[in-house]
Each structure stands twice: as C-alpha cells, then as structure tokens.
Design brief:
The protein has five helices and no strands. Helix 2 runs antiparallel to helix 5. The two termini are 35 Å apart. The chain has 97 residues and is mainly α.
Length: 97
C-alpha cells in the first residue's frame, strides 16, 4: 500500500493503481507469450524436438525443458516430439506438469 498510497490516506487513485500494475507486469511473461516463443523456435509446429531445443536454447535451459516436457501425442507428432504447450501452461500454474 505504501507504493500506491505514500501519504497513507487510505485511498488509492485509479491512476496510481494503473501505474503500479503497469510497472509490476511490464517484465513478466505469460504462458501465451512463452508458447508463442516455442512455436517460433519449432518452426510453427505444435511440438518441438530435442534437437531444436538444443540448437536454439543455451544448454542449461534446453536440458531443463527436455527433462520436463511431456511427449507430444498429436496426430502430427514425430518420434521424440515434445509438448511445449502443456509445459508452458504448467510453468505459470495454469496446469500440472
């Protein structure tokens, strides 16, 4: 409250609230943004492969994703396809890994 009501009046103006929320959310990703990033890395496919992850991400990030992504089981799946959609939503607490 001290950020949005520095004079401790017990009132938060709408503009102070908007300014606070803008600062708080400016540097945060959403599951949709992360999925869109994976889709680009995957060449617009609904899945990503281990080779693509290792080629596009730093080694520690690639291995983190590989260890936690579930296999992708869509009709367009190839052997070793990984499900970046469920992984992305799980990162943001929107589903379980």
């Amino acid at each position: 409250m001290s950020i949005v009501d520095p004079n401790r009046m017990g009132v938060v103006t709408f503009q102070a609230f908007i300014d606070f929320m803008s600062r708080e959310t400016a540097d945060t990703d959403t599951a949709d943004q992360v999925m869109a990033s994976f889709k680009i890395l995957a060449g617009d496919k609904n899945y990503i492969t281990v080779d693509e992850l290792r080629r596009e991400l730093p080694p520690d990030q690639a291995e983190y994703c590989i260890a936690r992504m579930a296999p992708y089981n869509g009709r367009d799946a190839v052997p070793g396809a990984l499900d970046y959609m469920s992984f992305s939503t799980a990162l943001y607490g929107e589903s379980d890994l």
